[in-house]
Amino acid sequence: MRKLPNAIFTLVLLHSICMIIFGLSTNHYFSLVMMVPAGFGLVSSLIATNIYLQSAVRSDMRGRVASLYSIGIYGLGPLGAFFAGIMTEHFSPQITVVVWCSIMIIPAIVFGFRLKRVNKELEPVWQEFEKH
């Protein structure tokens, strides 16, 4: 459990980098191959983030945090798709994918720089979790 924030960071970077490579690729078969690690990074990072949030929150606040997480994942997705569609009207789909995935890397890097602080703040939670 202690390595979960590091795993989230790595998985988000995996997804973003593979999608950037997908956007830059001109080979159909190579693009298909890049979708496998991109999908793995996306799904695994979503699962790891959910586990991370559920374990780091008091049980009386867990439902609220889960609902905010759901709004962030499922509620903002259509908004991002809308803006990506607007961007695709003016640029090629490849440029849109590369730009959006490059933007996704920025919060991952910010999170990566804060990993030591996050792990330090969650140390009591992990110790309590290991007792049970």
Describe the protein's architecture and organization.
The chain has 132 residues and is mainly alpha-helical. Helix content is 87%, strand content 0%. The protein has helices at residues 4-24, 28-56, 62-75, 77-90, 93-113, 115-121, 123-131. Helix 1 (4-24) runs antiparallel to helix 2 and helix 1 (4-24) runs antiparallel to helix 5. It is elongated.
Low-confidence stretches: none
Largest sheet data: none
Number of strands: 0
Radius of gyration: 17 Å
* Proportion of beta-strand residues: under 5%
Structural class: mainly alpha
Amount of helix: over 70%
- Contiguous helical run count: 7
Average pLDDT score: 90
Distance between the termini: 13 Å
SSE string = HHHHHHH
Quick summary of this structure?
By secondary structure, this protein is mainly α. It has seven helices and no strands. The model has no long low-confidence stretch (mean pLDDT 90).
Search tags:
0% strand; 132 residues; elongated; 7 helices; mainly alpha
Strand and helix map with partners:
Layout: H1 4-24, H2 28-56, H3 62-75, H4 77-90, H5 93-113, H6 115-121, H7 123-131
